[in-house]
Amino acid sequence: MNDEYFMQQALKEARKAQEKGEVPIGAVVVMNDQVIGRGFNQVEMLNDCTAHAEMIALTSAFNTLGSKYLMEATLYVTLEPCVMCAGALYWSKIGRIVYAAPDEKNGYRRVTGAVSPFHPKTKLESGLCGEESLQLVKSFFQARRK
């Protein structure tokens, strides 16, 4: 199993969100080649502005491990995390974050600029399956505007 496989798992979560009328963002937390947490946006379903895919996937992973730290884990998420999610990722001490596409409007970089909001040991990668992720989000918003 590789990064592409796990990002495809995150994209499956994003499609679940889309099917439920949510912005199609998905996330999975992986450790030792096992998915230990999954999540998709549930902001509308739960009427909770904090119910982002990353937050739900992190909570699931914490519960699976019985731990509040994820130093050996990787988060795969379909869109650049927002500042709120970046804060949660910082406190989780997650080892690695792989996000598919940038989020110019709401991503953490809009607020933090060149300063990383993540734990100093967290590795960060982006661009994997970026076009597929962006297409999901674009098609979602195009359909809503009709």
From TrEMBL:
SUPFAM superfamilies with a match to the protein in the record: Cytidine deaminase-like
Cofactor note: Binds 1 zinc ion per subunit.
Enzyme class: hydrolase
GO terms classed as biological process: tRNA wobble adenosine to inosine editing
Keyword Metal-binding listed: yes
Gene3D superfamilies: Cytidine Deaminase, domain 2
UniProtKB keywords: Hydrolase, Metal-binding, tRNA processing, Zinc
Binding site for Zn(2+): 52, 82, 85
Protein name (Swiss-Prot/TrEMBL): tRNA-specific adenosine deaminase
Gene: tadA
Family, as annotated: Belongs to the cytidine and deoxycytidylate deaminase family. ADAT2 subfamily.
Signal peptide stretch: none
Domain of life (superkingdom): Bacteria
Species in which this protein is naturally found: Chitinophaga barathri
Domain CMP/dCMP-type deaminase: from-to ranges: 1-111
Cofactor(s) named in the record: Zn(2+)
GO molecular function, a single term: zinc ion binding
Catalytic-site annotation from UniProt: 54
Subunit structure comment from the entry: Homodimer.
Biological role: Catalyzes the deamination of adenosine to inosine at the wobble position 34 of tRNA(Arg2).
EC number from the UniProt entry: 3.5.4.33
Catalytic activity annotation: adenosine(34) in tRNA + H2O + H(+) = inosine(34) in tRNA + NH4(+)
